[in-house]
Amino acid sequence: MEVATGYQSFDSFLKNSYWILRHGKSIPNERGVIVSCLVCSLCLYPPHFWNRFCLFASLPVFYSENGVLDECHLACDGVSQARLAGESFLKGLKSKEIDVQNVRICYSPFSRTRHTANVVSSVLDIPFEGSQCRAISQIRERYFGNSFELKSHEKYAEIWALDEKIPS
What would the DSSP string read from start to end of 70-95? Predict the structure, then answer.
């Protein structure tokens, strides 16, 4: 028995392969800084909206879009990591005889993940601005809040301790 999901049967859906890749080492990783903010944390409007309508845009402590800034993309090591990951993925595709045209690259809007996806897509010879690559805001990583934004990685210990007290 097959269950329809809207695109294809559930049985054929399970035959898809998924490759999950964490972003390469970013400039903030290299500097030991937490960057988890993607939008203005008070008004939660997307970046193109902020400059025109955000009431908090003039307050730097509240107006933070660090995750999408070019200064937060991959460090040199991260570019090398992404290239190696792309080469490994390409080798796996070839060994399974999977056509690169069947590959879709989905990434979060963070500059580090966008940069990683761009490097991998170039290794696979997939046009980054084409239909096979797209940013999906729902697959973004966790936001730690303003009190941890741009703080030292040493603050992660506090975050994990809070997680133990208040499990999600």
Answer: GGGSB-HHHHHHHHHHHHHHHHHHHH
